[in-house]
């Protein structure tokens, strides 16, 4: 990538970072144009050309995603307060917009979220973020650690990745009910037992885990006890929240592993992230670590 284009992309990424940090603030074109150091007369077209969304639409979706997560995970905050935080002057305007986007009222979503339309609604936001969120890795980004065995509670996902979102939300709900909240300092893990996009979508396989040594009773949620085995691992830190660790995994397998002289151990690659308040943790503060088990 040419230096001028890298600089241009860096300025646009600075805008996304600013939006993440200031969802409660004034995010008008003039403010965001200053962040990017672009003229306010052209910035809105530059943003739309880069991300495929208008600035207004992007900010609206980002605020609505935070609001929906607050509804699902923060019962202490009223719908009115959540509506105001999302930039709506009145709860009824927020309720209309919410129902139009998700097919549920805010109060109904709080009681029993329907996650399928939720994930579909935020597809454009995720696509916009992924356009420039590409990271170039180097050998200096990888460390080798001796990891202790970690007892975990496991929820297995088997089948089409398109249904993974619903499994993740059931997993989060179980963690909340089991008092494995962010304040406990627990870590969550994803163990990737298949490729991201297998030829047969039904062959997709992944385990969702949370660190705990408490007994796991058989439940309708399908949780079971297990252990992430200890041993040497190549660890690659991925800054920022992401739903796609495939570029990081590709770097480890294609570039780092052949050059390192190491051999992979007989356990799948997995990632770890510290559990955080889903509504409050800004994307720029999240760090995910990807573990490649070694012999």
Q: Shape, please?
A: globular
Binned, the helix content reads 40-55%
Largest sheet: 8 strands, antiparallel
Order of helices and strands: HHHHHHHHHEEHEEEEHEE
| Low-pLDDT stretches | 275-284
How big a fraction of the residues is strand?
15-25%
- Please report the distance between the alpha carbons of the first and last residues: 36 Å
- Which structural class should the secondary elements be placed in? alpha+beta
How many strand elements?
8
Spatial sequence of strands, sheet with the most strands: 1-6-8-7-3-4-2-5
Average pLDDT, to the nearest integer? 84
Write down the oligomeric state.
Answer: single chain
**DSSP summary: helix tally:** 11
**What is the C-alpha radius of gyration, as a whole number of Å?**
21 Å
What can you see in these coordinates?
It is a single chain. This protein is of the alpha+beta class. 43% of the residues lie in helices and 19% in strands. Strands 1-6-8-7-3-4-2-5 form an eight-stranded antiparallel beta sheet, with helices on one face. The two termini are 36 Å apart. 24% of the residues are buried.
Helix-strand layout with pairing:
Layout: H1 3-21, H2 29-36, H3 40-51, H4 55-73, H5 79-85, H6 91-102, H7 106-111, H8 115-121, H9 123-130, E1 142-147, E2 150-158, H10 164-177, E3 187-192, E4 205-211, E5 223-228, E6 231-239, H11 246-260, E7 270-274, E8 287-293
Antiparallel strand pairs: 1-6, 2-4, 2-5, 3-4, 3-7, 6-8, 7-8
Please sum up the structure shown.
With 295 residues, this protein is of the alpha+beta class. The protein is built from eleven helices and eight strands.
């Amino acid at each position: 990538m040419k230096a001028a284009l890298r600089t241009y992309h860096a300025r646009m990424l600075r805008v996304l970072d600013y939006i993440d940090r200031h969802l409660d603030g004034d995010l008008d074109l003039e403010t965001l144009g200053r962040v990017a150091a672009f003229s306010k007369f052209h910035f809105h077209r530059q943003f739309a050309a880069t991300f495929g969304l208008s600035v207004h639409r992007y900010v609206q979706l980002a605020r609505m995603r935070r609001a929906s997560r607050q509804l699902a995970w923060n019962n202490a905050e009223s719908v009115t307060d959540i509506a105001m935080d999302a930039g709506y002057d009145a709860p009824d305007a927020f309720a209309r917009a919410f129902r139009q986007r998700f097919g549920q009222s805010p109060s109904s979503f709080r009681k029993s979220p329907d996650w399928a339309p939720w994930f579909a609604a935020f597809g454009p936001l995720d696509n916009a973020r992924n356009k420039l969120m590409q990271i170039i890795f180097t050998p200096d980004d990888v460390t080798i650690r001796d990891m202790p065995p970690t007892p975990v509670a496991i929820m297995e996902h088997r089948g089409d990745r398109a249904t993974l979102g619903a499994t993740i939300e059931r997993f989060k709900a179980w963690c909340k009910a089991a008092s494995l909240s962010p304040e406990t300092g627990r870590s969550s893990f994803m163990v990737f037992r298949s490729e991201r996009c297998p030829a047969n979508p039904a062959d997709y396989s992944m385990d969702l885990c949370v660190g705990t040594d408490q007994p796991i009773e058989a439940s309708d949620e399908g949780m079971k006890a297990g252990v992430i085995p200890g041993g040497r691992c190549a660890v690659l830190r991925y800054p920022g929240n992401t739903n796609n660790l495939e570029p990081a995994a590709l770097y480890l397998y294609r570039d780092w592993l052949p050059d390192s002289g190491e051999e992979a151990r007989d356990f799948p690659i997995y990632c770890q992230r510290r559990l955080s308040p889903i509504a409050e943790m800004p994307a720029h503060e999240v760090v995910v670590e990807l573990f490649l088990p070694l012999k």
